[in-house]
Design brief:
5 helices, 23% helix, globular, single chain, alpha+beta
Length: 198
């Protein structure tokens, strides 16, 4: 990674040195209205974690976000934009050990990744990702696949090939898959500290 953050257009890389753990309080307690669908929100017990990683004043931050954001992609994007990030922010959401969602916001650019397309038939945020990507909701008997931006962290050293290999391992707990990604970002210790209460 370049030493000078001005050398690239977006340098929101995460340096393991000088990480600050910040319990970010966005004040979001959940959507105010019922959209009328048949999806039940994930409960607090079903939500493994909602975590944001970003850079503020040049220093990486790892923050646990409101659990209610695990049920609303649009609001998650809104809250990521409100973070005092120098060059965008990335969030990871894991639900019930079954699937994870990654979201990266840099200015007007939003990238999303859902590691199990079939989850869109059962969980609100997975459905939101499918809608965002203009994908049909798969039937339960369809094969799971990784959908979205496989290059979401390519500039951080995780190629689309590596991302697909990690995200598409359906034998593993989804939280552990995210931790594999975090390991590659060299933020495991800080990530574990931010999610220690989960």
């Amino acid at each position: 990674m370049p030493d000078n953050e001005d050398d690239i257009e977006y340098d929101d890389g995460f340096d393991a040195d000088d990480i600050v753990i910040d319990d970010y309080d966005d004040g979001f307690d959940g959507p105010d209205t019922d959209d009328g669908d048949d999806y039940d929100d994930a409960t607090d017990d079903e939500i493994d974690f909602v975590v944001a990683i970003y850079r503020e004043d040049g220093e990486p931050q790892v923050s646990e976000m409101a659990l209610a954001l695990a049920n609303d992609l649009d609001e998650l994007i809104v809250q990521l934009r409100r973070l005092p990030a120098d060059a965008g922010a990335c969030a990871f959401v894991s639900i019930s050990g079954e699937f994870f969602v990654a979201v990266r916001v840099r200015g007007k650019n939003v990238q999303v990744l859902l590691n199990d397309s079939v989850a869109a038939g059962d969980w609100p945020i997975a459905r939101d990702v499918a809608d965002f990507l203009s994908l049909d909701i798969p039937d339960d008997d369809e094969d799971s696949e990784v959908v979205g931006d496989l290059d979401i962290l390519a500039d951080q050293g995780i190629s689309d090939f590596d991302m697909e290999a990690i995200a598409g391992d359906y034998e593993e707990d989804s939280g552990d898959l995210v931790r594999q990604i975090i390991d590659q970002l060299k933020l495991r210790k800080q990530f574990d500290a931010a999610t220690r209460d989960r």
